[in-house]
Amino acid sequence: MPVDPLHSAPRTQRAAPSPGGPSTEGAPTAAGTDAVEVRRSARRRRTVSAYREGDRTVVLIPARMSDAEEKRWVGVMLDRLAAQESKRILGDAELAERAGRLSAQYLDGRARPATVRWVTNQNTRWGSCTPAEGSIRLSHRLKGMPEYVVDYVLLHELAHLLVPGHGPAFWRLLEAYPRTERARGYLEGVVAAGRLPHLPAARSE
């Protein structure tokens, strides 16, 4: 997989928490840039949980958890919540409409697919496209994943309608999308967790 030169979505600096006390971390969620409050508990031994509270997300973790573990679990729980909240599955027509909006927002409307649809026979990649036909296909395995992940795969294939390979020109097309690295990390995490076989980067046909 080629190196993605994009930056992670911006995060505000987290203040060091007092022992056993809460810490607040500004981290983007799938719905926007809601704040994240991390609450440490000496009574909590191993479990981690999270819930929405107004315009912020509260993540509950054991007090002994390291800063690195806290950062990793905050990301995991944000993605789990986003997946749970993304219950409405887009149909093919809605998927095509979404692709049109993404093209207009990030590619100046230059990518104009003729068809965009879900497929169930695509188990070795997340998405594919045929530039000559202007067709884009997304694996049904993406259904139920956070919207920003589906958007990334859509945008990835839209970019392939303009640039077939994964060279610098291709990745420059995706620079405007702020969640490329986060989406790639989510998909790589799914593979690493063993829920799916190893899937290579989406590619053109």
UniProtKB/TrEMBL annotation:
Q: Which residues form the YgjP-like metallopeptidase domain?
A: 115-187
Q: Where is this region: Disordered?
A: 1-41
Keyword annotations from UniProtKB, A to Z: Hydrolase
- Quote any Pfam family the record assigns: YgjP-like
Tell me which domain of life the UniProt entry assigns to the organism this sequence originates from: Bacteria
The cross-references to CDD domains, in alphabetical order and at most eight, read: M48_yhfN_like (cd07344)
| Keyword set includes Endoplasmic reticulum | no
Output the Gene Ontology terms for molecular function: hydrolase activity
Q: Which InterPro entries match?
A: UTP_pyrophosphatase-like (IPR053136), YgjP-like_metallopeptidase (IPR002725)
* This protein's name: Metal-dependent hydrolase
Please report the organism this UniProt entry assigns to the protein.
Streptomyces caatingaensis
